[in-house]
What we know:
Layout: E1 15-17, E2 27-32, H1 41-55, E3 64-67, H2 71-82, E4 87-91, H3 97-105, E5 109-112, H4 120-135, H5 149-152, H6 155-164, E6 170-174, H7 179-189, E7 196-202, E8 237-241, H8 243-257, H9 263-278, E9 284-289, H10 303-308, E10 321-322, E11 333-336, E12 346-350, H11 357-367, E13 371-376, H12 385-388, E14 391-394, H13 400-410, E15 416-420, H14 427-436, H15 444-451, H16 453-462, E16 470-474, H17 479-489, E17 493-497, E18 507-509, H18 512-524, E19 537-542, E20 548-556, E21 559-570, E22 578-583, H19 589-606, E23 611-620, E24 623-630, H20 638-646, H21 650-658, E25 672-678, E26 684-690, H22 692-696, E27 701-706, E28 713-714, E29 725-731, H23 734-747, E30 749-753
Helix pairs in contact: 1-2, 6-7, 8-9, 14-15, 17-18
Amino acid sequence: MLFDSVHDAIGHTPVVRLRMETPPGVEVYAKLELQNLFGMKDRVARNIILEARRTGALTGGAPIVESSSGTMALGVALVGASLGHPVHIVTDPRIDSITLGKLQALGCQVHIVEAMSDQGWQGARLQRLEELMVNLPGAFWPQQYSNPDNPAAYRALASELLADVGHIDILVGSVGSGGSLCGSTRALRERLPHLFTVGVDCVGSALFAQPDEPRRLQSGLGNSLVPRNLDHGVIDEVHWLNDHEAFAATRALAAEQQIFGGNTSGSVYRVLTDLARRAEPGTRIVGLFPDRGDRYTDTVYSDEHWQEHSVRELPLATTPESVDYGTVVRTWSRAVNKSTTDVVPRMLFVESNTTGTGMIALQQAKDLGLSPVLLTSRPERYVGLAETGCEVVVCDTNDSDQLRTVMTERFRRDEIAAVTTTSDFYVPAVAELARLLDLPGNPVEAAAVCRHKAELRTRLAEADVPQPRFAVLHEPVTADQMADAVAAVGLPCVVKPVDDSGSNGVLLCHSAEQALEQAGRILGVRTNVRDMPTARSVLVEEYVQGPEYSVELFGGPGGTTCVGITQKTVTGTPYFVECAHLFPAPLSAEEARTVEDAARRAVAAAGMVSGATHTEVRLAGDRAAIMEINPRPAGGMIPELIRLATGVDLLEQQLRVAAGLPPNLAPERAGHAGIRFLLADREGALAGVDGTDEAAAVPGVERVTVTAAPGAPVRPPANAYHRLGHLIAYGGTPAEVEQSLAQAESLIRIRIEDPSDTDSTGVTAP
């Protein structure tokens, strides 16, 4: 292979079959990560540093500081130096002379702490690192113990194993930072859900409910602290070896397999022998061998070192003792991993919608046995948030770096069961976080495409999916450009932002001049209602006349299910604000097929595969045109209509798939439900809404909700943010539902007074 740079040569390590006595058909393989330039941690260093450069966390030429006494130090030195960064390594006196020599040869500045802190050598090193971060402006710390780009680095290793070995039954790896074994396991289980994972630790390590003994001789595995990247939940069984057993196994690996490894590789080898002996015929076992033995020549391979540290006085077991988890061990032992027994699994919500279903979702997370956490920049935005009792973390959710930092510093990886949102605006961010944490979710590109209406139009056009004619214009938009766009799509046309929601900024235009004015209004808004920068582009579309529907699809392991089709009613032009819904839509079988097929084609073209999508479609004669795809459950309380009509709780199912649980989409009943939104008929200030109790008493009415506060400025709706509340009803037929809603609506009186100046453009500014 030819590589453009030295760090491109990381990975692509060989897999060899080990020679050992096994039951018939049992195969044991070693993934020789020690064949990387310096070791397995080369992968971590490359992934973390390249991601930091991509996101801007690490600028060109800025220093890199890391705490390590082994292969992570070498990996950071390798990648950092090859990319032109000064590298500072903080280590302790246990560093071997070979590693120290390599670091110095690579041009690193090595800082050796002199004494342990009350948290061992690791704690002392971290104290020194913090001092360096203060004194080196712009310095970047890879933070291998908490940075999710550490375990994410092993997706490549998992892909290599699948390509080279195929099916794997048991994966064995040493545990230090938690990155390699946890990251590899999560990636492999996407294809191999029944993979059994065994973690290898050392006696005297605090990782798996054992007392910390900082004077243990092994390096490269074990820890005095429990790293946040250690996902206990993916490890099925744990083995502990003492220094004598690990060192002896390392020498045996060299003598028996001609693999000159470090004590991490030796420990994995010893555990492989036990698993192979106990394996069922036909089992395929793979062990990860992290580093080579050259830096252990003065320790593991030195008789003098053994004698100096009385290594042979420690017990030397030839088979592991099976113990209950939590039993203090002194010799080779194994236990079923029960370290997550007391862990509270959390579902992290990155913001929420404001229509009501978002607060319901927080409560439903509790019903699934998960502790909901709302990450938000403005908790006051959410009516009813305090009543949910969920944990609220205030942070800048528009800053991806801060969002990551808050998550990784506040929660251990094994505490995070899911990450999700009920807000349009944060679907791409959630997709990125889910991918980073190896949690269930949709492809990042698919989420981004669905959120950017212009990119979605292009994708659908490439897949020949029926949709309106369109043109995309970028700031600044000239009169000639708009004239060309209007000529291409025809008049009247619809002008809209490419990245907003709730019909905000959507306007029907009857001339190129009017379209140009609306484009100017849209481009004049620099930030949206979530304080995000706008995309600086507008979409000019053909005006497709005909009834509007939304198709509620749900993707899962068994394929995509159509939960149902919603009939949508919008206000009169020039705006397109949804003012009523009816579920299921009263369509003929042929019409339903046409609408559903168009939505399925669109969602497949966009690349959405997991969870709910809300696809809006207009039916013009026998033509179904895709208006947009929302890559999340429907808003506008449509999930509540589905629950009332069918018993299927779409929000619950969305949360289930986010947490890796199977959805249940089988309907329990066949009813009908509808919603009408409360709207102002003129501009002014809301004085009050009367008749809500009487409306709620109408047979069939499920609820009456007022969302606008007295005194709030109101106006005839130009977008969904101008709605004042809603009525929901349930019945056996569409006619019953409509009758209940009409009767309830007739009892409502919206009092408006003191007209005030309001924006008549239909574009909501922050």
